[in-house]
Automatic annotation (TrEMBL):
GO terms for cellular component: DASH complex; mitotic spindle; mitotic spindle pole body; spindle microtubule. Its main location: nucleus. It comes from the Eukaryota. This is DASH complex subunit DAD1.
Amino acid sequence: MSSKPNNKSSSYFEKQRDALVAEISVSMDTLLNNVNTLNRSLEGAIAVGKEFDNVAAIWNNFYDGMDQTDRLFQKNSRLSPEQDFETPPVDSSR
């Protein structure tokens, strides 16, 4: 048993290991770049979504007011003609 074949096999092992480590390093760099790109895209989407918060709140107030008006109309339509119509309550919190 000579030590020369051991060195050759160790050398082959080390070359293969170094090649795999280099391939893993490149793959990790690619993965990191793709995750950073995804993060920027998500941040952009969130920022665009936040721009519509005020508009959504206005439409929500509109639909809430329409719903309140509809419920008041339905309640008043069930009253007899002798009864007075109720006026909608004023919301002072706005």
